Amino acid sequence: MSLNEIDWDTVDEVEWGADDEIDWKDVEIKEDILVELRNDPQPSFFVRKFAVVWWRNGFYKAGKVDGTVRVTPTQFLFLDTKGKVRLSVENDMIESFDLHLHEAKFPIYYNEIITKNAYSYQITTGVNEAQSTQNHEDLKNAIFGHSDKPESDVMELKVVTSNDGKIKEFKQAFEKTSVFPTKVSVPYPEVQASSLEEVVDFGLDNLKDKIQPPFIIDDAGVFVDGLEGFPGVYSRYVYDTIGLQGILKQMENLENRQGSFKCVLGLLLENGDKHKFVGECKGTIINEMRGDNGFGYDPIFIPEGHDMTFAELPPEAKNEISHRGRAMQKLIKFISEKGL
């Protein structure tokens, strides 16, 4: 069956059955994870199940299934929820890795892998164009070894994030140091906790066996005084669920719009030591969105002592006063004094 004969609308509706009594294997080689994408009920990740198509003995198997897409230094893997390998392709056997659009009532973007021995595999990794494109680029760069790498005399610091805006801020902050931040897209569950510090501690513990230290994770939130500190640790959930327009609507007629941005960076070192660095920036939540820079809540937050939002400020100016910028300044001081 050719690629053109695949009905992607059907693929996206069909559940996997008994898997034809295939004995799915465990991951045989434990390697550092370069990129990992997964289905997750949290809004911070895409919730659509992976639509997967591949060929086995001349027949194709198609369906949707919960699982994880992972790229290591040597392999492209698709794992089911039990951690069993449904698909494994050696990176050096991949001839091409391209993103295609299937036009339908609900457009589907899918990645097509063509191997050097003419096998073909297709898999979706996003619910819309923006997410599919970003995930595709992250996967492709990892497969072909095009990820940014530091020079040999520069220390690499892995930053666990899928947010390009965030990694850009890290690179700007470390620009005049001997540390080179590199993005690692490995998701981890964000536990519901009472503080950002607890969320970061949980994340470091969750990732310590998946990523070779040293690496950094962070959690941030906006704490509105008139809402008794809400959304706080739930900032990402609220942003993903109702967006900035929804947040502004919830704050209509709120008199006390003072608040603060807070960021906690968590650093895990090779010896297992954990360190946290906290940054805070006080300011005001305005009643409209202004500016095109930054990300997240930046368009509605004016830092204390300024008349422009984070999204209106030049990136360099924002990084000097922002919550994350202040936390990164403490991190840079720590590394300059004690190293990685």
TrEMBL record:
InterPro entries xref list: dITP/XTP_pyrophosphatase, ITPase-like_fam, RdgB/HAM1
Pfam entry (one): Ham1p_like
GO biological process, one term: nucleotide metabolic process
One cellular-component annotation, GO: cytoplasm
GO MF entries: metal ion binding; nucleoside triphosphate diphosphatase activity; nucleotide binding; ribonucleoside triphosphate phosphatase activity
Keyword Hydrolase set for record: yes
SUPFAM superfamilies on file: ITPase-like
Keyword tags: Hydrolase, Magnesium, Metal-binding, Nucleotide metabolism, Nucleotide-binding
HAMAP family, per database record: Non_canon_purine_NTPase
Similarity comment text for this entry: Belongs to the HAM1 NTPase family.
Protein name: Uncharacterized protein
Organism: marine metagenome
